[in-house]
Amino acid sequence: MIAAQDLQTDFHYPHEADTQLSSDTDLEDPEVRNAKSGKGKKGKKVPGEKGKGVLVRAPGRVNGHHQENGMENLSLFEIVKLGKSATQSVVDDWIESYKTDRDVALLELINFFIQCSGCKGAVSLEMFRHMQNSEIIRKMTEEFDEDSGDYPFTMAGPMWKKFRWGFCEFISVLVRQCQYSIIYDEYMMDTVISLLTGLSDSQVRAFRHTSTLAAMKLMTALVNVALNLSINMDNTQRQYEAERNKSLGKRANDRLELLLQKRKELQENQDEIENMMNAIFKGVFVHRYRDAIAEIRAICIEEIGVWMKMYSDAFLNDSYLKYVGWTMHDKVSVQETATVTSALNARLHSKLDLYMTDRIVSMALDKECDVAVQAIKLLTLVLQSSDEVLTAEDCESVYHLVYSAHRPIAVAAGEFLYKKLFSHRGPEEDALPRRGRQCLNANLIKTTVFFFLESELHEHGAYLVDSMWDCASDLLKDWESMISLLLDEPFPGEEALTDRQETALIEIMLCAVRQACECHPPIGRGTGKRVMTAKEKKTQLDDRTKITEIFAVALPLLLAKYSVDAEKVTNLLQLPQYFDLEIYTTGRLEKHLEALLRQIREVVEKHTDTDVLEACSMTFHALCNEEFTIFNRVDIARSQLLDEQVDKFNRLLEDFLQEGEDPDEDDAYQVLSTLKRITAFHNAHDLTKWDLFTSNYRLLNTGLQNGDMPEQIVIHALQCTHYVILWNLAKVSEGSSQKYVQSSAAAASQNPLMDLPVLCVLQAFTILCDALMIFSHQIMSSGRDALEPLVFSPDSSLQSDLLNFILDHVFIDQDDDGSTDGQQDDEAGKIEALHKRRNLLAAYCKLIIYNVVEMSTGADIFKQYMRYYNDYGDIIKETMSKTRQIDKIQCAKTLILSLQQLFNEMLSEMGCNFDRSTSSFCGIKELARRFSLTFGLDQLKTREAIAMLHKDGIEFAFKEPSPQGEGGPPLNLAFLDILSEFSSKLLRQDRKTVHLYLERFMTFQMSLQREDCWLPLISYRNSLQAGADDDTMSVVSGVSSRGTTRSKKTKITPAPAKRKLPEGGSDAGVWMPREPTVQQTPVMMSSPHMASTVLREAKKLRPDEGYVGVYTMISEGVVIKKCFFCSPSRRSTGLMEDDEEPIVEDVMMSSEQRLEDLNEGMDFDTMDIDLPPSKNRRERSELKPDYFDPASIMDDSMF
User: DSSP letter string over 1-44?
Assistant: First the structure.
């Protein structure tokens, strides 16, 4: 590409080196150094014969492979791309060809860089010899087709992901293999550096990116060569000094001359390397570190960090540090990550000034997680070098990140916290005992407790422990010291822990035990359980054994000390869940088990708090394991405890019911306390042998009749009755209690929502929804047909009551909710009330999803989607998705019904002469637009549903006559304006059919009307006629606009023949009623997890944002792109320019279902999606699928 005679005019090296190179690290291999004897002398060219443009290979081998592998005609680019050849062999073959004919070899190297840029052009030998450098680059630019999108560094696939590594490795090995001779011949390096410098100044992004990457890797390789030269010079100088200091009789003058000559040669080589490095730095780095493309800037900054780490004597100074400091203020995440990573690699923490430190602290709070992690790690290094650099405010900014939901950030912040608070030890601390209350770990544990309390995030102890687990696991596993702090008396002069500090310490201790036994992060931080290694499993077993041995002895003592503190006892009682129960027997710890059971019994008798009682119940459940020998002992203790409680409850109940309408408060309290204990145990234990249903039913029946029953008694009686039914249902396979369960379920469903206190009604509604779910047709799944008599279906009256309850108690304003007993001003109370309402809505939506109630009842839920989007948007969205999976047509009818209900409500409020620009009408129209977007882009799948939706909408629009008499518009005509939001989802032939169906309701005079009141009809007709000539179908292929595919496996199936509609009234067949289909829920359909406590923000849409639908037309085997309603293009920050597409509204389907839907009915092995090329040299890039909508596969990301 670059003629030899053009080198002096196009490019020259600076005469004075800006960098002084010196180091004293790794020595050069003597055997490798001896190979330098064949090095070309300075100023001389290595002779070689001119070839014919073909590299001369060693006979029988090509790039390390035998010729029978079929690689003898492959170019360097193809060899590196395939990655089947060892890089060392490829470079050795190239060096052999260079020694044979250096012009031909350089030509292949030049074309290698050109092809790596995605350019299809090639430099010929004639061009290389006779054309100027700039002319050749201009020629390659003209032949570059950026619309192809075939840029190797951004293409998808495992081969291309590996290509970048192979490209960088090739350059590094090339310089390493040529470092003793070829790079000093003043030809190869001159040509390559001149080429890369010219390409790095190109306006083509791919050229700039490829050449910058190559130049920076070349610079890194040269830095390594310079470092080796510096080491050799130092060694030679020491040898010379040692020889010269010898006495005259022992001094070897010839050796001194050889050492002087060698030092001179090394100095000359070092000067040449310095010139090359300066040429690359000034010709490429200085210009590209501030390139407009973030990825190019990131390459430069990442490599300068490598140079500083590799050769700190030369690069770790202000001349180069300024570039890192300047780029720290780059706000692009890719560049921020590169900058901080560069600083980490170079260990710049000792060189950072105050100004740069402030910027790093702000980067630790960056929204990009990768940037924040690297910044925190750098701050940790800064902290280790000096405590004075970071202020207290800087440290506090990092401290709170230990509670971050992103685990890498939390772990990095935990290490920072540990280094700051726990790593500094004075000489007096080294003399402390290793165990006990005064040991070093005890003081560190106190510090952890103080930090936990000062952070004021009391319920996040598990997140703090998880953040510090990697760096402070030894501290967190020192349970002996924790127990000592809790049980031992303080020494004279020592300040004892306060009650609040003891509570925090117990919580941290429990979290540490859980982390050691479960070996996975808390909820919200992990991506799922990972497979543990053998070492991790062994550590887990050892920790569990240690926990059992320690707490089996200490837990009864801790319970005895804190038996009256509900919060402490609740946490302590969770510890036995992590015990290895076999150790009670093997370790002869039976007496401690008896002590534990006695303490649990005392706790049950002392407390009435639900959390404490449930903790006791779960402890008995964990200990009552039939696999262990302690089962009989624990089972006896449990039976004795329950016998006493049930007998007490029956005795108190008789006295309580005999008192009539004026029960004594003490008796009511005793009944409630005992009922709480029984209910808590019934949740985890089978108490059917005590026949609790009869007692609870009597209690409920009496309370409902009299109306004066305390609400807490009613709530727990309802819950206990629910548990009775579930436990009897679990035993129904024995055939003894089926009739009892049937009568119990029927009794539980009678009069469920009477005039009771609010809390009782809420509890009754939740239990009723659960019971209806359990005793629905789902109970017969998995071959359990014998349970058919237990199936209970709610009648229309019960369904209406359930729906009215939801409308009255869920879709209300915060100020109207009275469930928090006057605590609406408290933010925590409002959040708790919202969670309760979300649970109620989720319980009812599950009834819709599983066909327990009619799907049409969902219309009253769906119409609240926009108004209550912040509170319930995710639940309603998931409900729409699941109902669509069950029956697309019925779901569409439900959606249009919800819009009709809103339209009727608007008419009743505003009258028939309303303005369509009002907020009410615009809100309905916006809701229709959201509903339309949930149908996705695959029109074939939703064809019938969309057609039925239009049919119902048209009939509704012309259902009511005009209030103005004959000649006026129908009352509901404005509904057509709302219906037009769904027109884009119709296929071409269906648009014609819908238009013909619309004309049935129209008179000739209607078609001539142009008044404002008729605009909805005009706009709806226009929406049906728009695109009527386009055969818009679903996305089926990734074929490019030129008709070529990216995958050889992709096959294009001819479009099916289009059904022609007969003339006249032939469209009636489309609207013929179909055979009634039985809606049946899939048997194994999992219950959706809808009662999430995460409150999502409403997605704010800009008025100027459009929504994009990409479709393809298949005609005669040619695929053509069609784009509707495209949003204004925005500049992207990626390497290849692209139009940034907005994310299409989702239909809330799972990723597995999305892939199945996309691939269903397609005869394609692979599927890619190509964006149309834009005006300004834009590239198509690989698109990520949206995680909700199976058809919304457009994303803002570039690569």
Answer: ---GGGHHHH----SS-S-------PPPPHHHHHGGGGPPPTT-
β-bridge mates for residue 65, sequence order: 62
Number of helices followed by number of strands (H, E) in the chain? 48, 4
The whole-angstrom distance between residue 761's C-alpha and the CA centroid of its chain comes to 39
Burial category of 1061 from C-beta neighbours within 10 Å (exposed 0-12, middle 13-18, buried 19 and up)? middle
Tokens describing residue 693: 């249903």
Q: Which residues pair with 1120 in a beta bridge?
A: 1113
Four-residue CA torsion sign, 556, 557, 558, 561: positive
Give just the sign of the alpha carbon dihedral 1153, 1154, 1158, 1164: negative
Q: Is the pLDDT of residue 714 over 70?
A: yes
Give all strands (DSSP E) within 770-814, no chain letters: none
Separation between Cα atoms, residue 639 and residue 655, nearest integer Å:
24
Under a CB-based contact definition with an 8 Å cutoff, are residues 616 and 606 in contact?
no
Q: List the one residue out of 663, 659, 586, 591 whose CA is nearest residue 628.
A: 586
Q: Which residues pair with 1118 in a beta bridge?
A: 1115
The amino acid occupying position 202 is S
pLDDT digit string (tens) for 1073-1098? 333 333 443 333 343 333 333 333 33
Contacts of 736 (CB under 8 A, 6+ apart): none
3-class DSSP string for 1089-1140:
CCCCCCCCCCCCCCCCCCCCEEEEEEECCEEEEEEECCCCCCCCCCCCCCCC
CA distances from 9 to 2, 4, 202 (A): 11, 10, 19
Q: Give residue 338's pLDDT.
A: 58
Strands (E), 804-955: none
Q: What Cα–Cα distance (Å) separates residue 1085 from each residue in 777, 782, 842, 850?
A: 13, 12, 16, 9
Long-range contacts of 940-945 (CB under 8 A, 24+ apart): 940/987, 940/1033, 940/1034, 940/1161, 941/888, 941/1034, 941/1157, 941/1160, 942/888, 942/892, 942/985, 943/987, 943/990, 944/888, 944/889, 945/884, 945/888, 945/889, 945/891, 945/892
Asked if residue 482 lies in contact with residue 445, where contact means CB atoms within 8 angstroms, the answer is: yes
Encoded tokens for 61: 């081998």
How far CA 538 is from CA of 479, 512, 518, in Å, comes to 19, 17, 13
Q: b/e string for 786-814 if b means 16 or more Cβ within 10 A? A: ebeebebebeeebbebbbebbeebbbeee
Query: Cβ–Cβ contacts within 10 Å for residue 947, how many?
Result: 23
Beta-carbon contacts of 158 under 8 Å, excluding residues fewer than 6 positions away, are none
The 10s digit of each residue's pLDDT in 757-805 is: 777 888 889 999 998 988 888 888 777 778 888 888 889 999 999 999 9
Give the least confident one: 303-317, 421-435, 549-563, 1037-1051: 1037-1051
* Alpha carbon separation from 763 to 335, 472, 758 (Å, rounded): 54, 44, 9
**Pick the residue with more confidence: 237 or 1134?**
237
Query: Which residues lie across from 1112 on neighbouring strands?
Result: 1033, 1121
DSSP 107-166: HHHHHHHHHHTT------HHHHHHS-HHHHHHHHHHH--GGG---TTT--SHHHHHHHHH
